[in-house]
Amino acid sequence: MAKQINVALVGNPNTGKTSVFNRLTGLNQKVGNYPGITVEKKQGICKIKRNLKAHIIDLPGTYSLNASSLDENVVIELLLNKKDKDFPDLAIVVSEIENLKRNLLLFTQIKDLKIPTILVINMADRMERKAISLDVENLEKKLKTRIALISSRNNTGFEELKEIIANYKALPIEPCLNASVIDPEYFDRLQKTFPNEDLYKLWLVITQDVNFGVLDRNEIMGVTSFKTESESHLKYLQQKETIKRYQFINKALKETLIIDKDRAKDFRSRMDRILTHKFWGYIIFFAILFLIFQSIFDWSSYPMDFIDSSFVSLSEWLKLNLPAGDFTNLISDGIIPGLGGIAMFIPQIAFLFLFISVLEESGYMSRVVFLMDRIMRRFGLSGKSVVPLVSGTACAIPAIMATRNIENWKERIITILVTPFITCSARLPVYLIIIALVIPEEPVLGIFSLQGLTLLGLYLLGFGAAIIASYTLDRYLKIKNKSFFIIEMPNYKIPLIKNVVINVVEKTKAFVFGAGKIILAISIILWVLASYGPGDFNEAKAIIEEQTINDGLNEEQLESKISSFKLEHSYIGIIGKGIEPLVQPLGYDWKIGIALISSFAAREVFVGTLATIYSVESDDQETIKNRMAKEVNRSTGAPLFNMASGISLLLFYAFAMQCMSTLAIVKRETNSWRWPLWQLVSMSIVAYIVALIAYQLIK
Fold it and tell me: 58 pairs with which residues across the strands?
């Protein structure tokens, strides 16, 4: 049986740590959360040799062990606590060749914890182009470790890395810096008070608010024989430690690293002058956004139609081949249409994640964050708020979790409260089908699509709403302290196909299975509510047949009328009729009202709900899009989904919360029901008023 060791993968952001993790583990990885907190935990298995496997934990990116966020606390707690089941037998610090000096600060801190540590220098393929030369053997001696020079892009150096991992027990654990040089007198007292504890670990326990197994911070501070220092003096000593470490790093790199800037071919600077330009940068960004949205419509139309028609055919086939009865009706009219209502959007969601992954992998997304910061900071948001807002285009839940990096509590609250305004992928199914129904396929200026422009407008509306809400909250909450915005601009690079594919597959899978569970449960509940009622449906059928016998209706028309009657007098029909007066001023009927309520579980359930209701109402095997297009407003006789009601629906979903999972994560992140309830009520009121005004003006 192969032995398994724990390996901690650590590194600064933008060093290619995720690429290294993907190269080592491939698809043999899983994602979860650390116990009790919302920090993402990625782990995977890598076969090192025949009798050795490595359980690799991809820790959150951090610049040093001086933590300022929940993400960084996770790194420190794992590296300090030997009682943790994931405590590493080996640490791999990923750095990159162009920012080696800064990366080595974290490396020296981890090595001083006396954990066997390997230094991985990534992006070695750039060394020739950037005119960089490195004396690896000499640097290994100075850092007292083994170094693996790799390129995750070209997949080189990984065999050497695995060989070093296999021989991890031979790695020296001698520290780079003797902790006592920071302040000899203070550290001498510290060592005398706790003679059996490692000096540098003690220092981290004192200066960082982290858990440390049996020996915790409170226990140390409570020892009467040890004179504690003031917080300001501890900060001073931390700064002194950083200076001492950089002195050591500078000395090590002086003789081993040579960069000849005169011979370097610096493509990055030329591109940055264009892509981050204060005028052209925004033009290019919005042009890229528009191309993405137009492509989402154009490229995905064929697979969408195929999936939609396939689910209709499957439902019809099941009806014909399974024994007649409630169970067959549940599957063919409830579950299959409900799932089909979301499965048809998989191509568009996959394309959205594909484009986002390409932008992130290429390094352009960091430029977008930098560009948007110029706008956001004027409205009370921290520069660090831009990352959650941009990632909110995928899903509000991880975006809200990403606010942990914002140190200022009030700035973090504002970011959490406005993030749900950003158009997430869950809104995409609603937007796409409504746009396809009410917005004509007309070209604009001969080259643009009106439908694509509408989708772009909804995304911009979401960002605009977030900014206006931030400005209002900033004035209301009276934020006094502002944090500085610091972002590292990574080098431009051609996206790695493997990373993009893994990202698209994992995120699409999470979206589909996460939504699928909810849709499956709701589809069953809706079918039951729509198929049964308090009255006698057989008696109603006889009355309808008697009333319409002289109208000359054929059998198909008669069945359709009976199905409609049964639906209206079912439990769901009674509920829908009860809320219809509330939604009628917005241009909706009771069926749309039911879809609005059920979509509170998840926005994308809206389409699946209508698919289930329409399937119960009619025996016609039509696609959900065609069925919605034929719906008639009984009050006016006009199509139910017209320009007025369509725009009203689009605006309602643009502003409404409509997601119980987001509310749950807001409660978890703020540790209070005050903020999520305030969020739900205020966003619902705004959504209703805006949708009402839009419908009344357009109709």
Answer: 9, 42
Angle at 56 between CA 50 and CA 61, to 5 degrees: 155
User: 115 vs 90, 134, 136, 149, CA distance in Å?
Assistant: 6, 25, 21, 20
pLDDT digits (tens, 9 = 90+) for 600-647: 766 766 776 676 666 655 555 566 677 777 787 777 777 888 899 999
Question: Closest by alpha carbon to 145, among 157, 159, 161?
Answer: 161
State pLDDT tens for residues 299-357. 777 787 788 788 878 888 888 888 877 788 788 877 787 677 667 767 867 887 788 78
The full set of domain ranges for the chain reads 3-170, 280-477, 535-698
Backbone angles phi and psi of 57, in degrees to 5: -110, 120
H or E element that contains 565: helix 555-568
Angstrom distance (rounded) from CA 477 to CA 475 = 6
Collapsing DSSP to helix, strand or coil, 585 comes out as helix
The predicted model scores a pTM of: 0.54
Q: Encode 655-672 in three state secondary structure.
A: HCCCCHHHHHHHHHHHCC
Sheet holding 3-11, edge to edge: 29-33, 40-49, 52-58, 3-11, 90-96, 117-122, 146-149
> Which CATH number does 3-170 carry?
3.40.50.300
